Amino acid sequence: MEPLFHVLRGGGDMSTSTIDTETLENSVQTGVNQLLRGGWGEALKTILFALLLLVICLVIKAILLKLLDRGLNRFSQVEKSLHTFIRSMANILLWFITLMVVADSLGINASSLLALVSILGLAVSLSVKDSLSNLAGGLTILGTKPFKVGDYVEIGETGGTVQEIGLVYTKLTTIDNRRILMPNSLVVDAQVTNYTTEPLRRVDLTVSASYDAPVEKVKQTIQGVLKDHDKILLDPPPFARLSGYGDSAMEYTIRVWCENGDYWTVYHDLLEEIKTAFDREHISIPYPHLEVKLHQS
Fold first, then answer.
1. Do 180 and 203 form a contact (C-beta atoms < 8 A)?
2. Which residues of 100-124 are buried (b: 16+ CB within 10 A; e: fewer)?
3. What is the pLDDT of residue 8?
4. Interior angle at CA 119, CA 114 and CA 125, nearest 5
5. Low-confidence ranges of the chain (pLDDT < 70)
6. Residue ranges per domain, the chain?
7. Which CATH number fits domain 12-127: 1.10.287, 3.40.50, 1.20.120, 1.10.357?
């Protein structure tokens, strides 16, 4: 019998290897001969027994899958995608066992089927290796849980809120409402920064003040703004100190802690309120000036 199909085409020993189905054909032929050897009556009994065995296997498979679903549902930390994957793999495995049991009852050599399925699996895995890489990445994400749905993350240079963690892609929504689908293989290899996982977050700001403004006055003005903000935590205490000397201004570093969800509110409030306080206390913020002189000839 001619080979059923080529696994791969091209040069080299591996690329020209084929699936030899002669053993499987002989096994099936042997099974048919054994089935008909005792006459149609015995053949009918064997077929009915195989059908009964199939029904029993299907019932057992349904029971096992139901028990698996109950077991997975008890673990709320198991992501839906991982739940679906585990159930699908279990379903495929049980179907394969069913096929082997029924084939064996009909006198077909199960080892031949096993060899054929193994070679088919190798051929498929080689043709979809990129998808398998994403699948492996998805399982890694679901297992290690570097983030969950609803977290704001930065993956490489891409930031957004996690909408879905699939087995192949992770879906993000950016702050300007763009949907991004990132292959899980890239997610696993990239640096992931999760801004949501911790309950508290620190706001860091740097402001400038004129060299003419006394340091203590600037610090007291900034501290007054920090103490009056109801979303800034007092423990750890707010920090405001002179941190550098610029070309035209002194730089002050501000560090305050707040609830994670209040980060951007505190950030923008401080920018606005510190400027208002500086104006009230006559503290100037130097900025570059450009002088243009015109000379008449």
1. no
2. bebbbbbbbbeebbebbeebeeebe
3. 38
4. 120
5. 1-43, 75-82, 109-132, 289-291, 293, 297
6. 12-127, 137-194, 200-280
7. 1.10.287
